[in-house]
Structure formats: structure tokens, C-alpha cells
Design brief:
Elements: E1 6-10, E2 13-18, E3 24-30, E4 33-34, H1 42-46, E5 57-58, E6 63-65, E7 68-71, E8 74-77, E9 87-89, E10 99-103, E11 107-115, E12 122-132, E13 135-144, E14 150-152, E15 154-156, E16 159-161, E17 166-167, E18 170-176, E19 182-187, H2 191-198, E20 208-213, E21 217-220, E22 223-227, E23 233-237, E24 245-252, E25 265-267, E26 272-281
Length: 283
């Protein structure tokens, strides 16, 4: 089935958002060049490969051990949707139906109110997309609608078309166990990872890892993505290499952060957390 997308355009920039699929930024192009890997049909966003198209919302991001965590002395559970490793993976927001509040040629506002069905807390998340001749700005507001504090762990599975050259400001690498969960130990970067911080070419080899952020600006060929300061982690993934895409995933909180000391932010009742992503030319 053809994917319903809302178009945005300004000058040489063109974007599209699928409100019925988590308000995913399913298209971003400059002069017709695809910066993000785009889906063409709904089936692609319903498949197991849904995370490697566009910029899907992850809440919570990546893996949560056994699909369970404790917060403020209470236990919570999420479905174990990675049964081979007994983890919860990537949250449940990729097919959340966002309500369109406003749509013009250059602006889109859409929101979703979660009453506990996709994450066991009450909150509203809103996306503000604004495109201009300088690029695309994505503002994200999360308001805690509950009577008690909530944990905030969020990210995006940002999937770029594979560039000729890229750089990511990696800090340190999280050691991982066989379940792809952080052990809690932070490691120094290896030779390849140091090259990534300075800028290098994809070599077709598998690329995967969890890292602290040493900066908030990623260079992808002739383009760049910048993030607000809350995004304190980077995750890298390329599907084993040779797939034509590169995921550079900004995260607020570490992988399995709901189960790590100081692994996620705390959002008080009635408060709003505001963060953003910006895509532009690398000048």
C-alpha cells in the first residue's frame, strides 16, 4: 500500500513525514539527492526492517534488559520483542498515529498523547518540523501529563544513505555482553573508531557500537546533523555493511539506561523537556 506522507519544501530542500507511523521523517533530500533512506510503501514500515528507513522515534531507545525496569521504587514491564536475547527493543512508537495539528508548505506540527499504552507513563510528545532554505529543524517537546515523575530515555534511528565520507564525535565505547547490553564498563576508542571521529570513508565492513557523545554535530558527506545537548549518546549501525545505508543514532540516555545508575533523565510532573535535531549543508 502507498505510504501516506505530508510534504514540506523550501528552495532546494524537500522533506516528508508519515504521521501514522510515529511522525517519522521518511524523506529528506537536497536538489533531489536523498540524504535519508526512504521507504516507498507502508509494508516497509510494518516489517522487521522498519527501523532503517527515515528517522524513526525510539522510546525507550535500543535495548531494555528482559523488558523490565524499576523507577521510583515501582516495577514496570515492556514486551520482549527480541526473544532471542530476551530484550525489549526500540520501543513501540514506530506505528503510533500522530495527530496533525498544523501543516503548511514549510511547517508541520503533530502530536501523540500516550496514556500508558506504548510506554507505562502518561505524556504527550509533539514534533515541530520547519523547513527553510538553510535546512530542516525538528523540535521535540515531551510533556509529563502524569501526577508523578517519569523517566526520559529517547532516541532516533536516523538512517542516512551511505555517504562517501562521514564523521561522528564519539567519546568512549560501551563494552557489550552477548545480549548486546552494556556491561557498565566504558572503553577507549579503537583505531577505526578514532578515524570515525576525525572523518573517514565507509569500507564496507560491519559497523556497530554504543558510545558516549563527545559532541553534537555529525558530518554525512556534504550534509550535517546537529542535536541539542540532551543527546548524550551515539549508536552506530550499518546492517552488517554493504547495505547502502548508515545509521547514526542520537540518544538521550544510554542503551538499557532504564536499568543503569544515572542512565536516563527524570521528567517531573507537568514539566516539558524540549530538544531538537537540525539537518543542513556542511559548509
Amino acid at each position: 500500500m502507498k505510504l501516506k506522507q505530508l510534504a514540506l519544501r523550501s528552495g532546494r530542500w524537500e522533506a516528508a513525514v508519515a504521521p501514522d507511523f510515529g511522525a517519522n521523517l521518511t524523506k529528506l533530500a537536497y536538489d533531489g539527492f536523498p540524504i535519508l533512506r526512504s521507504p516507498e510503501r507502508e509494508e516497509e514500515l510494518l516489517s522487521k526492517s522498519r527501523y532503517v528507513y527515515g528517522n524513526p522515534l525510539l522510546l525507550p531507545p535500543n535495548r531494555t534488559k528482559d523488558g523490565s525496569f524499576c523507577f521510583e521504587g515501582r516495577s514496570y514491564s515492556l514486551p520482549v520483542n527480541e526473544p532471542e536475547r530476551s530484550n525489549h527493543l526500540h520501543g513501540l512508537f514506530t506505528d503510533a498515529p500522530f495527530r496533525v495539528v498544523k501543516h503548511t508548505a514549510s511547517e508541520l506540527i503533530c502530536s501523540y498523547r500516550n496514556r500508558g499504552e506504548r510506554f507505562p507513563f502518561c505524556f504527550t510528545i509533539a514534533f515541530y518540523y520547519t523547513i527553510s532554505e538553510s535546512g530542516l529543524l525538528v523540535k521535540i517537546d515531551i510533556r509529563n501529563d502524569g501526577a508523578e515523575p517519569m523517566p526520559l530515555a529517547m532516541g532516533f534511528h536516523t538512517t542516512f544513505t551511505e555517504p562517501d565520507r562521514f564523521s561522528v564525535p564519539l567519546g568512549k565505547r560501551w563494552e557489550r555482553d552477548k545480549r548486546y547490553l552494556p556491561t557498565g564498563r566504558l572503553m577507549e576508542l579503537n583505531g577505526k573508531e578514532k578515524q570515525i571521529t576525525q572523518g573517514c570513508r565507509p569500507d564496507g565492513a560491519p559497523l556497530t557500537g554504543y558510545f558516549t557523545a563527545a559532541g553534537h554535530r555529525v558530518v554525512i558527506g556534504d550534509y550535517q546533523m546537529e542535536t541539542s545537548g540532551q543527546f548524550d549518546q551515539w549508536v552506530l549501525f550499518n546492517g552488517g555493511g554493504g547495505q547502502g545505508y548508515l545509521c547514526v543514532e542520537p540518544q538521550i540516555g544510554a542503551v538499557n539506561g532504564l536499568n543503569l545508575p544515572d542512565g536516563c533523565r527524570r521528567l517531573e510532573s507537568g514539566r516539558i523537556e524540549q530538544c531538537w535535531l537540525r539537518f543542513s549543508k556542511n559548509l
